[in-house]
Amino acid sequence: MTGSARKMSKLLLLLVFILPSAAFAASSSPWPMEDFDPDLENKPSLQNGMKLYMNYCIGCHSLMFQRYERTADDLGIPHEIALEQLIFSGQKIGELMTTAMDPELAKNWFGGPPPDLTMVTRARSPDWVFNYLKTFYIDDSRPFGVNNTVFANVGMPNVMQDLQGVQTCTERKMVEGSEVCSKLVVEEGSGVYSEQKFDQAVYDLVNFLYYVSEPARLERQRTGLFVLIFLVILGVFTYLLNREIWKDIH
Q: Which CATH topology does 34-235 take?
């Protein structure tokens, strides 16, 4: 076995052990997870998701593999509107979607720089991100005054609390020797949005992150369909040609 082949076999063996454990870690939350069904054909949802991201997320979290121009073009947003209403940092339309937060200050505030979110829906799954954003609750014992049922003891504030309202944990249960929250209730009238409208806002935001994780997903899927159709047609003609060639031999 050559050196390159040996390295490849080790890599495959490593993936066999890592991927199942990573998938388990991403789905092992005791909280009952709601399903998330992304819709990349829904341009209004994606546009609203980008607006929410620019207003609530990019101050800390970058999308450093995504450009404003590509995003605006894919989502049907004119460049002048994107520059005027979505880009608040003075960046140009062709630049990458990076945050202006200083990494050293972020380390002092959060213990480390907030992660880039370009690939978060692929690393965690869209279901995980959707439920995570909905399940912050008040916890005075935490540095930012909130906790999360999907990601316990998370070091992040609830940046969308003004939209959702004040959510508290009203019931707890024991799971594998640890006490976890089992019921969340939003204080009536404490948020700008109703429960249904907030759920839709979170859906739009996660839908946008799902798009960002692979902007060419729809194009790839369409191309794959055409390739399969071509292979089927080619297979039919190949079969007919093969039968025509061999009929005289037999």
A: Cytochrome Bc1 Complex; Chain D, domain 2 (1.10.760)
